[in-house]
Amino acid sequence: MGSANAAHSILAESVLAQLGRGRFRAYSAGSRPSGLVDPATLQYLNEHGYPTAGLRSKSWDEFAGAAAPTLDIVITLANSLIGEVCPVFWTGRPTSSHWPLPDDCDLATAHAILERRISALVAVPVASFDTM
Questions:
Q1: Distance between CA 95 and CA 14 in Å, rounded?
Q2: What is the pLDDT of residues 65-112, one digit of tens each?
Q3: Nearest to 32 by CA among 8, 6, 4
């Protein structure tokens, strides 16, 4: 999750959707969503063969309440979220982690970092998540 949910967290959602190959359902959201996905991010994803259908900038408030999907893992990306109080109302009592990206990180660099991290995540047996 990033604060604006316009670029890096959208990139992570799409990369996890592809690398997770149906084993994971990825969502991105932000504490202060911009309401728009960065057009350069969509172009980058399309050029690199990642799925873009359904991507949209949204608030993390969508993941609260009875109708929200159960979350197993919440990963924050934006350095601006350090010290910010994340919602405690997410369903599923998710494990959380912070994967910081440099504030001035371009899409290619963010992609390389996120792809490496997400590849490691999807290699972990899902049963292991219960013990995290």
A1: 20
A2: 778 888 888 888 877 655 555 655 666 678 888 898 887 889 999 999
A3: 4
Task: Report the alpha-carbon distance of residue 74 to residue 105 in Å, rounded.
Answer: 21
* C-alpha span between 66 and 63 (Å, rounded): 9
Higher pLDDT, 41 or 31: 41
- Alpha-carbon 128 to chain mean position: 20
Cβ(30)–Cβ(4) under 8 Å? yes
In sequence order, the 6+-apart residues with CB closer than 8 A to the CB of 66 are 91
Amino acid code (one letter) for 1: M
pTM of the shown model: 0.86
Per the rule left: phi > 0, alpha: psi between -120 and 50, beta: everything else, 117 is alpha
Distances (CA, A) of 26 to 84, 102, 103, 104, 124: 22, 22, 23, 24, 16
